[in-house]
Amino acid sequence: MIVGSTLFKRSISTLPFLSERIKQTENEIVGMFKLPSVSDRKPPRNDPSVRILDERFIRILKIFKWGSDAEKALEVLKLRVDHRLVREVLKIDVDVSVKIQFFKWASKRRNFKHDSTTYMALIRCLDKAGLVGEMWRTIQDMVRSLSSFDSAELSEIIRILGKAKMVNKALSVFYQVKGRKCKTTTNTYNSMVLVLMQEGHHEKVHEIYNEMCNEGNCFPDTVTYNALIVAFKKLGRDDFAIRLFDEMKGNGLQPTAKIYTNLLAIYFKLGKVEKALRLVKEMKEKGCSPTVFTYTELIKGIGRAGKVEEAYIIYKNLLKEGCKPDVVLINNLINILGKVGRLEDVLKLFEEMESLQIVPNVVTYNSIIKALFECKAPISEASLWFEKMKADGVVPSSFTYSILIDGFCKRNRVERALLLLEEMDEKGFPPCPAAYCSLIDSLGKANRYEAANELFQELKENCGRSSARVYAVMIKHFGKCGRLNEAVDLFNEMKSLGCNPDVYAYNALMSGMVRASMIDEAHSLMRTMEENGCVPDINSHNIILNGLSRTGGPKRAMEMLTRMKHSKIKPDSVSYNTVLGCLSRAGMFEDAAKLMKEMTSNGFEYDAITYSSILEAVGKVDEVRREPGML
What we know:
Elements (H helix, E strand, L loop, with lengths): L1 H10 L4 H4 L6 H6 L23 H10 L3 H9 L6 H9 L4 H12 L8 H14 L2 H14 L5 H13 L3 H11 L8 H13 L3 H14 L6 H13 L3 H13 L6 H13 L3 H13 L6 H13 L3 H13 L6 H13 L3 H13 L6 H13 L4 H13 L6 H13 L3 H13 L6 H13 L3 H15 L4 H13 L3 H13 L6 H13 L3 H13 L6 H28 L7 H13 L3 H13 L6 H19 L5
């Protein structure tokens, strides 16, 4: 700033010989910039670069900017103002403001009118400079002034506006020009579709596709179909995506690897594993080689379906086929193996990354630390990997801390987890609800309710509000320790703050009500839950069933179990054992025996404690019957 101001002061010096302009003719001004041996470098007449800008004019433009000096230089150098000259000037490495001034000056010249090429040249300059306001004004002027457009230019304008996040403006230009000033092509429609996809306007994508089909001269290609399949996939309309895939093949188009990969993800999401595998087979038969993205979806889908060994074999086979995995594929495989306790394979996979020249990222380390906790490895191992991660230059994320805090909490190392929470704060991470949730739950389980409440209040102060899951945990522990009024207050508070209670929050409050023998109130809350669009899960039903079995008697418990058998949510082992205990306490051993038989036929195991209590009760009854007075 000091240098700039000094230069400015020198330029307006009051000394006569510095402040007065030297008198020069126009030819002398041009001569100042005469290059040595220009004539020696004069290109032949048939050279296509003959009309490139004279370097003397470029120098004048760079020094004097656009103004009378540059204008005079144009006249002296006899440079005719035409479309080519304008395009060449706009290519010069000068400030964009100079280009804008020159463009506007040229537009006022007699016998000159900008065409689509000069407009596009300026639009590209403005896009590069990030002057979106001026760019949009230029595009509007172009649309108004020109009677026709090239479809490639319209496609480029749509892409430029999309890049600038001006989707509505891109749509406006598309509809103003389409049909009237430009004959749209498949590429034009694809540009509009891709811009809409980029900004998440998936519903509009379908509308554009329908317009395209009605156009008569535009037909969807693989780019169109891929965008549409992704759009319907994100909208959750998988049946439409599958239908489009079949339509595409019916139209004689060969799906790309990207399209196959998207369909693969849809089939796995729908649980259609066999169809997904047949799709991979079809892909290979059609000569379309699976990419690393295809293999990632395949391994992820197979792993989620519980076929862990098959997922690992696919990984081994892709290496033999010469397909190099990336870090995303490896991270997914580490997660799959870790969840089933195959820690040895997880660590082996990490070692292989070096030979495969794959650099582990924060997700890799997070996945390994999580696997260590899931596989019940010593806590020291998780701590060592955390230190290794930092030593390798990988910065821990808030999710890293969340995994460690949750892992330490589950191993009853709450104090260590609290230290990590403090470290998170020192590192400048925003409060992580998942980490707080783990700590609040652990403190509640340890009957440290006040400490749990303090953390809960701290999270609310730092975030302004808390998540439904954290509320649910706090409500659960207030209910467990008999502070039902506080639990109800929290439940009402979350609703007033616009935090809609989820199934966990409802279950937590219902559980507290059952503990307080408020069965009717709990039952009423479940009905309210359904009315508010929150679907009860098996735990919701089991909470009410538990309350009825303890205070409502065996009849009401059996009635609810029967209703569950005929509803969408079928009874599980907990449901049967709850009612079995109720029958046992009521001395209804024959009914208990029938229920035990039913449980066995449905593949459920009865609770050992309940079974022992039934046997004990039956033994006592037999002893009473054998007494002399009872014979």
